[in-house]
């Protein structure tokens, strides 16, 4: 089982999603204590400093291969490090939390669509499972009220959040095939380095505001360390491994469990309630992920014949 790349890739995707889900708890604790883009820049800086402690010798050795793979690395740094958090932050200024949540869970759909556009045929079970999990995610963030979804009014922020969701899907696609001789540590180091450089204009814009400040406290320090080590280093490394071993489509399906896991962490660490809505959405999300993993009848028959 542990030698099966698809199983291990799915496990890595689940661990990544758990770490990213914990970020919502940390974000709630850090609200008003540190500007969001500054937190984003510091988390990636912490990750880069740690990477430099052990990844530079391998990077130097693998640089000839990395140079040939530089365009996908730059695209990954731009979409994942530079643009994702600023787009979410700018989107939040002109749209509702419900809209943000609903649009953010469309990333797996875009992964499947982009995969299909690139000529990678997607099994019917993937489309069915993807739809079921999407319904479960929408049901959760809408708190079980269909009227909230039907009454949505779209704004500029929705377009920005949609761009962030598509950007994350693009990131997941460009790193699905890693050249031989190139390690995940080298990719992550270069991705974070160039992503941080491209993030500097956004950081300068944020600090140009007169009311920006940092409240140095234990919560802020913990937020920087957790997001830097857990969310930016370990989680992205695991996500890259999951893309390599399980593929972006399967990893994207597990990404649907993020709203559910966030609710579980909120229950244990913030005292937030879990009710019937969370249970129903959980069944739909997990059921959709399981359904998407079912082998097609033709492929199953061929496997049994061999």
Which value, in Å, is the CA radius of gyration? 20 Å
Alpha plus pi helix count: 15
**What structural class should be given to the helix and strand makeup?**
mainly alpha
In terms of per-residue confidence, which ranges show pLDDT below 50 for 5 or more consecutive residues? Answer: 298-306
- Termini separation comes to 20 Å
Global outline? globular
Q: How many separate structural domains?
A: 1
Strand content: under 5%
Percent helix, as a range, is over 70%
Largest sheet features: none
What's the count of strands? Answer: 0
What sequence of helices (H) and strands (E) makes up the elements? Answer: HHHHHHHHHHHHHHH
Q: What value does the average pLDDT take?
A: 79
Pfam families: EamA (PF00892)
Subcellular location: Cell membrane
InterPro entries: Diverse_Substrate_Transporter, EamA_dom, EmrE-like
Membrane topology: Multi-pass membrane protein
């Amino acid at each position: 089982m542990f030698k099966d790349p698809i199983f291990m890739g799915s496990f890595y995707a689940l661990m990544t999603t758990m770490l990213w889900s914990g970020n919502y708890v940390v974000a709630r604790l850090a609200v008003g204590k540190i500007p969001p883009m500054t937190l984003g820049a510091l988390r990636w800086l912490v990750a880069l400093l740690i990477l430099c402690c052990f990844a530079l010798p391998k990077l130097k050795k693998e640089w000839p291969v990395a140079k040939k793979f530089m365009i996908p690395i730059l695209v990954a740094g731009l979409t994942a490090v530079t643009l994702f958090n600023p787009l979410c932050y700018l989107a939040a200024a002109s749209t509702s939390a419900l809209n943000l949540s609903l649009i953010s869970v469309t990333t797996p759909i875009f992964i499947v669509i982009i995969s299909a556009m690139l000529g990678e045929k997607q099994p019917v079970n993937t489309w069915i499972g993807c739809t079921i999990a999407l319904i479960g995610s929408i049901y959760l963030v809408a708190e079980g009220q269909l009227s909230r979804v039907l009454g949505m009014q779209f704004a500029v922020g929705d377009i920005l959040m949609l761009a962030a969701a598509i950007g994350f899907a693009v990131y997941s696609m460009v790193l699905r095939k890693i050249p031989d001789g190139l390690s995940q540590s080298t990719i992550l180091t270069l991705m974070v380095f160039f992503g941080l450089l491209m993030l500097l204009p956004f950081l300068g814009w944020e600090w140009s505001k007169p009311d920006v400040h940092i409240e140095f406290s234990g919560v802020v320090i913990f937020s920087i360390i957790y997001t830097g080590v857990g969310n930016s280093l370990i989680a992205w490394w695991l996500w890259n491994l999951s893309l390599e071993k399980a593929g972006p489509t399967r990893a994207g399906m597990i990404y649907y469990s993020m709203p559910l896991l966030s609710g579980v962490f909120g229950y244990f660490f913030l005292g937030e309630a879990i009710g019937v809505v969370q249970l129903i959405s959980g069944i739909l999300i997990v059921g959709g992920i399981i359904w998407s993993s079912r082998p097609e009848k033709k492929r199953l028959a061929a496997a049994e014949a061999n």
